[in-house]
Amino acid sequence: MISRWTVVVDRGNLAETEVLHDELPSGSDLSDCEVLLRVSRVGLTANNVTYGVIGDVLGYWNFFPAGGSGQGVVPVWGFADVVDSTVDALPTGTRVYGYLPMASHFVARARLTSSGFVDTADHRAELPAVYNSYLVTSSDPAYDANSEDLQVLYRPLFLTSFLLADQLVDNDFHGARTVVISSASSKTAFGTAQCLRGQGVRLVGLTSPRNVEFTKGLGLYDTVLPYDAAVDVEPSVYLDFSGSADVRSALHSRLGAELKKDVSIGLTHKTPSQDSRSEFFFAPDQLRKRTADWGSDGLAQRFGEAWRGFTAQAAGWVAVVQHHGPDELVEVWQAVLAGKANPDTADVISF
Ligand SMILES: NC(=O)c1ccc[n+]([C@@H]2O[C@H](COP(=O)([O-])OP(=O)(O)OC[C@H]3O[C@@H](n4cnc5c(N)ncnc54)[C@H](OP(=O)(O)O)[C@@H]3O)[C@@H](O)[C@H]2O)c1
Which amino acid residue places its CA nearest to atom 8 of ligand 1? Predict the structure, then answer.
């Protein structure tokens, strides 16, 4: 028997955590098409907190069901290794990248694809396909064994940055020539800024007073302002990563009709609110559109180019801090949840 740990959180109070221990099924208990994966290395950022904040609304608790009622397992992105398998093409030792539980192990029901497999477990059937796909590292052209840290931290975020920036370009910035970005110090926000540089728009970053210096230091925004400063009145698009109702209202009051588009992407301030003035960015829509426009290969080639440009700089902006084991994972979770994490460091946890 292999013992497994799982970090669960109280769905009503994400700061309440528990590390559960149980025994795993042995290889002979795996059903046809099942593989047992051991989680190896994951990243943890505000994006994972958002999975918890809107877990009930968007179904994020359903990926890795937790035992206790009212508890949930927060998904993280990272690498895992096959440690037992009923699938010949996925032998023990196969390393994959994808959506993982905060746990030492999990079982997937694998349907093979050209790049890896899809987990077809019943409880995941209704969930967005992008989260159910696992890439086998040995056949992933973007994989680089020396930059796993950058991949676990940035790859899920930068795809959104790339598609969001592309959607703006695709729509000629809705007639605006300034893009105002909140939570400008967040990785997804500054990844978007990096994609938008050189596209003929002025980039204005809004951030907390304590993060102004870091955000200026990125060199990606033309102007960086604390949240309470007034932006210039000019035709603008707002990209909201903070979810702050106050920041949104202040911008609408100041810009009026000059605010050409208000796009909601994130919730770093952890207060979900709906506002009919804002349009939710749904990355899979732009992904589908560009797959049709450019073909899968054309999209992969463009994304790959942008990704390489981004990762070449990312290590200089943010230092990676290494952690080990479930207890340190919980410590990082508490720090990120409380907003105590500094934007100039990013957390990777290995097991
Ligand atoms: N829709 C999508 O497809 C999609 C995809 C990826 C990410 N996102 C969203 O984008 C947002 C950024 O994610 P990320 O992983 O890039 O973040 P990150 O790098 O971990 O962001 C850290 C920044 O978020 C703000 N922040 C973090 N915790 C906070 C707290 N407790 N209270 C107030 N502010 C806090 C601070 O920025 P400031 O001081 O600058 O406000 C902080 O510097 C998340 O809400 C995420 O869910 C959405």
Answer: 266
CA-closest residue to ligand 1 atom 1: 265
Residue 26's pLDDT is 67
The sign of the torsion formed by the CA atoms of 197, 203, 208, 214 equals: positive
Whether 309 is covered by a domain: the verdict is: no
Residue 105 sits in the same domain as residue 188:
no
Q: Does the CB atom of residue 266 touch ligand 1 within 6 A?
A: yes
Which comes out higher in pLDDT, residue 56 or 101?
101
Number of domains in the chain: 2
Q: Is 245 in the pocket of ligand 1 (CB under 6 A)?
A: no
Structure tokens given for 63: 């990926």
Last residue of a domain, one of 284, 308, 341: 284
Distance 233 CA to ligand 1 centre (A): 26
| 210 CA from centroid of ligand 1 (Å) | 15
Domain boundary among 284, 307, 328: 284
Which CATH number covers residue 258? 3.40.50.720
Say which CATH number the domain at 328 has: 3.90.180.10
The b-or-e profile of 16-35 (16+ CB within 10 A means b, else e) is: ebeebeeebbeeeebeebbb
48, 188, 225, 318, best to mutate for ligand 1 pocket (most atoms within 8 Å of CB): 188
Q: What is the mean pLDDT of residues 76-97?
A: 97
pLDDT at residue 272, rounded to an integer: 84
Residues 136, 7 share a domain: yes
CA 106 – CA 7 distance, rounded (Å): 13
Pocket test for ligand 1, best of 183, 194, 228, 344 (most atoms within 8 A of CB): 183
Contact present, 347 and 149 (Cβ < 8 Å): no
Domain shared by 14 and 133, yes or no:
yes
pLDDT score at 149: 97
Least confident window among 28-32, 98-102, 105-109, 183-187: 28-32
Res 109 pLDDT > 70? yes
Q: Is 281 in the pocket of ligand 1 (CB under 6 A)?
A: yes
Residue 66: Cβ within 10 Å count: 21
List the domain range (segments joined by +) for residue 175: 157-284
